[in-house]
């Protein structure tokens, strides 16, 4: 365990959303992955066929019908951190509900507390049980066809490679689709929604560490996974980043570092110039790759650098803390982001997001409970776009 008194750089991020490495020996697995050559920087994009249905996952900035979230109630998962995490979930839900409807899935036993804590602006649904709060990963990924059609795909959630109990979470995507009465299809790969970022115009971003992974897709090659991603998302191209394998439960989801704020536009959260850990090095590689890539239509990306905070100046003293401004959530009329207590970096991040989203209100929330659990605001939300 990292010494709490040591300077906290991104190298002191969680060894998992639940510190799983020490218990499972996955550090060795990560080292083997790197030694195999899978971590080498390669070409930015692999073409793959788009879905033939005309349905595609739109960019986050389209108008939403609602936001889906989940209420955590397991002390087995969260231990003494559970009250703080529940307070964070409620804060996010109430904030998003100022801009669009929010439906929160809760277990029957946890629903009364969810309703009480979230208040009347949030709809609590107690008929779709959950194991945890990470709706980005467990929920359905919605697709539209531009002509009023809506369906949902599931990414075959398996508990981040069977690292956490997920019997209920594995069914959340299909159950939400059934609740809405929309067609549901299981994707041709195993992964999580936070592992894939789409520009809604044919281009995806993902990390090899998360998807080209024996815990998720042991029998699929990179080309096969790229094809399955594009079929599911209605895209034509995947921009691959190496990522960081075996160091957190997600194997480094792309949505903590790189995002598509608009078509032909990218954003990468950058480390301090003095940071040399694996996370920082990979963030710099992501910036270089995205800055020299073109989208599925041959247009170069305009890439914004979003400066991360100084881990020595943030509020949290948790050595597992993740401070990802890039893990923001776009809803109708607003961008919901985090602030971490580094006043200068918080203000700069808000200004950057406001510049990127000039027609939306930028809300910054203290979600330190979730940060200590290895995630953020985008991780616990899933948008349902208007057809």
TrEMBL record:
The keyword Hydrolase applies. The keyword Iron-sulfur does not apply. Pfam families: PAD_porph. Keywords: Hydrolase, Signal. Residues 1-34 form the signal peptide. PANTHER family: AGMATINE DEIMINASE-RELATED. This is Agmatine deiminase family protein. It comes from Streptomyces yunnanensis.
């Amino acid at each position: 365990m990292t010494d709490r008194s040591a300077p906290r750089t991104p190298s002191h991020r969680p060894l998992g959303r639940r510190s799983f490495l020490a218990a499972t020996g996955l550090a060795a697995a990560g080292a083997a992955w790197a030694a195999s050559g899978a971590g080498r920087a390669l070409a930015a994009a692999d073409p793959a066929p788009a879905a033939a249905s005309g349905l595609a996952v739109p960019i986050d900035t389209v108008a939403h019908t609602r936001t889906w979230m989940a209420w955590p109630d397991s002390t087995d998962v969260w231990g003494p951190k559970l009250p703080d995490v529940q307070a964070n979930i409620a804060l996010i839900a109430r904030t998003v509900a100022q801009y669009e409807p929010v439906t929160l899935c809760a277990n029957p036993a946890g629903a009364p507390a969810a309703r009480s804590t979230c208040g009347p602006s949030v709809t609590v649904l107690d008929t779709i049980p959950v194991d945890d709060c990470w709706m980005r990963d467990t929920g359905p990924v919605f697709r539209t066809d531009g002509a009023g059609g809506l369906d949902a795909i599931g990414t075959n959630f398996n508990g981040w490679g069977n690292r956490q109990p997920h019997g209920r979470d594995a069914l959340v995507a299909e159950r939400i689709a059934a609740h809405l009465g929309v067609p549901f299809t299981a994707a041709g790969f195993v992964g999580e929604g936070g592992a894939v970022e789409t520009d809604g115009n044919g281009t995806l971003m993902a990390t090899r560490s998360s998807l080209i992974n024996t815990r998720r897709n042991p029998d699929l090659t990179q080309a096969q996974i790229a094809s399955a991603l594009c079929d599911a998302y209605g895209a034509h191209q995947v921009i691959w980043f190496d990522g960081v394998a075996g160091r957190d439960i997600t194997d480094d989801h792309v949505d903590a570092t790189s995002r598509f704020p608009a078509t032909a536009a990218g954003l990468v959260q950058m480390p301090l110039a003095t940071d040399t850990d694996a996370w920082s090095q990979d963030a710099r590689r992501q910036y270089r790759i995205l800055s020299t890539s073109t989208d599925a239509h041959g247009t170069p990306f305009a890439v914004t650098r979003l400066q991360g905070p100084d881990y020595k100046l943030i509020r949290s003293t948790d050595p597992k803390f993740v401070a990802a401004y890039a893990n923001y959530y776009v809803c109708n009329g607003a961008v919901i982001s985090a602030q971490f207590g580094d006043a200068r970096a918080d203000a700069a991040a808000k200004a950057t997001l406001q510049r990127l989203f000039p027609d939306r209100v930028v809300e910054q929330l203290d979600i330190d409970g979730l940060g200590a659990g290895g995630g953020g605001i985008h991780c616990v939300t899933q948008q349902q776009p208007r057809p």
